[in-house]
């Protein structure tokens, strides 16, 4: 399976970077472990109390999540920003509330702490009574990195039931993160986003329901059909881009998928594509034996943006990079470098700037230009999904015009 949980033995080229960044991050590690002496030591060395990790999580976020009252007080006294927000717009108070650390909440509130995502953390996931789901007649659809997926009937309607392995769900923090992600997912409504329905209550396993998409994943389609014709590929690309644009424009903070792959794009009966499983890659970031792991690595290697592989800070454009590789596969009929191990592919992309080939026969010029922009090594040069949608709409129109003109080969128009 090519799913990346942070590699235990990262590539040699990654190693020196980790060593470099791990030193100041001891403050974060000690804060999450409740090691007050360690925190005092780090602060005495001059480590900045507002130091944040790749997800912009500070020592105060971590101590608040764990309810380490003394460390929270210490950090505040040393100048930690009580309202620093992480990548998902969460403050230390949001975290303390999520884990019901009442005393910590009071301290943070006294210091002026606010909780901008309060509604998220107080609005639990929609719950479905497990007796309403007919598990006796469930059909196994498939299995992914997180668990099995079944086709079941809920109130007489066919839906997909996704189970989460007990090895993952048994960790209370991971479970909490997971339920928070689902609570966010349940608020989303978009034709190109798989609809979340609810989490099962009183079930012996952690399980949630989504709409059932009977045509399976884009991965299955490409395996079955191979290369797609240009009109279909562009229509599919537009579906994905529209779903992703909705996630990236989400307020108050953007939702980054971080694991956009052909397996996470499903097709409904009418042929429309929908994006699924966003945010779930977060639960792959389990804590290491020391209690805190400094890593940027989540998602599947084959579609991973170079900055994620190199464990640098990253933003929404990591999804644009993955999107480009998916579009490439639609024209190509699958990954171009199937024979190579996914991690090796990611390594070469990250350190040798290698990208899949763009043969002139298969790829219209306009698509080539778009792909080069989307997988640009500099994340700042990659277009937003809004810009991608505009470009794809123009390409789609040109394709339609070409069809109407009929006699000329469509390649001439690009
Ligand atoms: N809502 C759904 N409707 C229909 N089929 C689904 C649905 N969700 C998942 N599947 C199918 O179930 C299988 C397993 O899906 P799952 O999302 O668990 O893993 P994956 O996406 O294949 O891999 P990974 O977990 O590594 O991302 C896939 O073949 C997928 O097509």
TrEMBL record:
Listed GO MF terms: ATP binding; protein serine/threonine kinase activity
The organism's place on the tree of life at top rank: Eukaryota
Annotated ANK repeat ranges: 55-87
This protein's UniProt keywords: ANK repeat, ATP-binding, Kinase, Membrane, Nucleotide-binding, Transferase, Transmembrane
Residues involved in ATP binding: 162
Pfam families attached to this UniProt entry: Ank_2, PK_Tyr_Ser-Thr
CDD domains: STKc_MAP3K-like (cd13999)
Keyword Kinase appears in the UniProt entry: yes
Stretches assigned to the Protein kinase domain: 135-395
Protein biosynthesis among keywords: no
SMART domains documented for this protein: ANK (SM00248)
UniProt family annotation: Belongs to the protein kinase superfamily. TKL Ser/Thr protein kinase family.
Stored PANTHER family: PROTEIN KINASE DOMAIN-CONTAINING PROTEIN (PTHR44329:SF62), SERINE/THREONINE-PROTEIN KINASE TNNI3K-RELATED (PTHR44329)
Descriptive protein name: Seven transmembrane domain-containing tyrosine-protein kinase 1-like
């Amino acid at each position: 399976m090519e799913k990346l949980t942070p590699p235990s033995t990262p590539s040699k080229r990654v190693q020196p970077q980790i060593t470099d960044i791990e030193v100041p991050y001891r403050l974060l590690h000690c804060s999450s472990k409740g090691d007050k002496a360690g925190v005092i030591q780090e602060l005495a060395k001059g480590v900045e109390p507002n130091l944040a990790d790749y997800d912009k999580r500070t020592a105060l976020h971590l101590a608040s999540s764990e309810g380490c009252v003394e460390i929270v007080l210490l950090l505040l006294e040393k100048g930690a920003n009580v309202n620093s927000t992480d990548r998902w717009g969460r403050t230390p108070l949001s975290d303390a509330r999520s884990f019901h650390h009442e005393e910590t909440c009071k301290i943070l509130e006294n210091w002026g702490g606010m909780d901008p995502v309060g509604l998220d953390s107080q609005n639990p996931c929609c719950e479905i009574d497990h007796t309403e789901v007919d598990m006796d007649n469930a059909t196994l659809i498939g299995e992914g990195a997180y668990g099995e997926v079944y086709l079941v009937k809920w109130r007489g309607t066919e839906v997909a039931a996704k189970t989460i392995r007990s090895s993952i769900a048994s960790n209370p923090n991971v479970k909490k993160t997971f339920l928070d992600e689902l609570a966010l997912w349940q608020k989303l409504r978009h034709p190109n986003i798989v609809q979340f329905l609810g989490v099962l209550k009183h079930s012996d396993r952690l399980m949630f329901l989504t709409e059932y998409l009977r045509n399976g994943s884009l991965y299955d389609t490409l395996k079955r059909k191979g290369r797609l014709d240009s009109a279909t590929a562009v229509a599919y690309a537009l579906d994905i881009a529209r779903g992703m644009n909705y996630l990236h424009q989400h307020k108050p903070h953007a939702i980054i998928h971080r694991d956009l792959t052909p397996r996470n794009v499903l097709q409904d009966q009418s042929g429309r594509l929908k994006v699924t499983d966003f945010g779930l890659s977060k639960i792959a970031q389990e804590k290491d034996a020391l209690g805190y792991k400094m890593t940027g690595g989540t998602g599947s290697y084959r579609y991973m943006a170079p900055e994620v592989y190199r464990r640098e800070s990253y933003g929404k454009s990591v999804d644009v990079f993955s999107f480009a590789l998916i579009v490439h596969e639609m024209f190509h009929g699958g990954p171009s470098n199937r024979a190579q191990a996914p991690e090796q592919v990611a390594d070469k992309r990250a350190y040798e700037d290698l990208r899949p080939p763009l043969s002139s026969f298969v790829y219209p010029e306009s698509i080539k230009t778009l792909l080069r922009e989307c997988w640009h090594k500099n994340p700042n040069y990659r277009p937003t999904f809004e810009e991608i949608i505009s470009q794809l709409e123009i390409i789609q129109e040109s394709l339609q015009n070409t069809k109407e003109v009929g006699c000329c080969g469509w390649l001439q128009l690009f």
